[in-house]
User: Fold this.
Amino acid sequence: MTQTIALGATGITMSAQGAGTWQWGDRRVWGYGGAYAQDEVAAAYAASRNAGITFFDTAEIYGSGVSETLLGAFVRADPERERLVIATKYAPLPARLTSQAVARALDASLKRLGMERVDLYQVHWPYSLIRLDTLMSALADQVHAGKVRAVGVSNYSARAMRRTHELLARRGVPLASNQVHYSLLHRQPEWNGVLAACRELNVRLIAYSPLEQGILTGKFHTDAAGARLPLLRRLQSGYGAAKLRATLPLIEALRVIGVAHDGKTPAQVALNWLMRQGALPIPGAKNAAQAAANAGALGWELSDEEVVRLSKFDIR
Ligand SMILES: NC(=O)c1ccc[n+]([C@@H]2O[C@H](COP(=O)([O-])OP(=O)(O)OC[C@H]3O[C@@H](n4cnc5c(N)ncnc54)[C@H](OP(=O)(O)O)[C@@H]3O)[C@@H](O)[C@H]2O)c1
Assistant:
């Protein structure tokens, strides 16, 4: 039986872990269309669903809309569509200056998804030329129009989140979530106030890059020089050989703890640790094997002592 959690104060519930879908259609960072393509991501969707995952996260910019199109097709063919919680994101691009621009972007996302309503509509990042009150009012309008079930934000600071929470509350809409970078190798939400604000305001923290883009699987640690980390990811993440080596003790601790839980992998232990913080991790998978492995983080729990032991590794 998969654990379920609440999406803040919205009344929506979903599996305690979700699935990210940036990989589904993105060529530049993830190489979609090369070593993996539509068949592999369809199998990743099926494997996630078989393992009880009911929350899927996409964005209008992932693969320039391809991720939404693929996810929409998988969901529409799913016999249990009604149980699923589908999230997408609005990109606050500089040219989008009015509430009509929000409505047009949402309509385009819904068209690609092939849906009349999306469960969670998130603002992808906080930098926007639209005033925050205009933006939140435009989003609340879409909730009242029935095209959006819940509103979330992403990459918002604790302060911006509090302001957003207040603006939406004036329109009778609870802020559902703040999706931020959070993993055992990226602990910023703990010290920048975002995790505390989420707990205080009953806003779900959705943890992106929960495996630190694959580093927490331990698969890049087999080569001490770190040469196996793909170049683009090395540049993007800043994980050169020395920084990667510094994470080895954490990977070892994840391995040891995993062994004590019937052979859980470092990745599964790292995802379970995030759930124990109250976060909803959304690991991205390119294929069925990765999706099934990630879902193995569900259905068991780290002990309090293990959570504390892992939390002590604060590598910056
Ligand atoms: N809101 C935002 O600004 C934002 C930003 C980033 C991501 N996101 C969301 O968060 C999701 C997850 O973040 P992410 O994709 O950056 O990072 P992630 O989930 O930490 O890492 C995903 C990558 O790790 C590798 N991987 C995943 N599972 C694995 C497994 N079981 N075994 C071995 N390798 C595995 C795969 O890459 P390889 O096979 O190539 O190693 C995969 O593409 C995204 O899909 C997206 O929905 C949101």
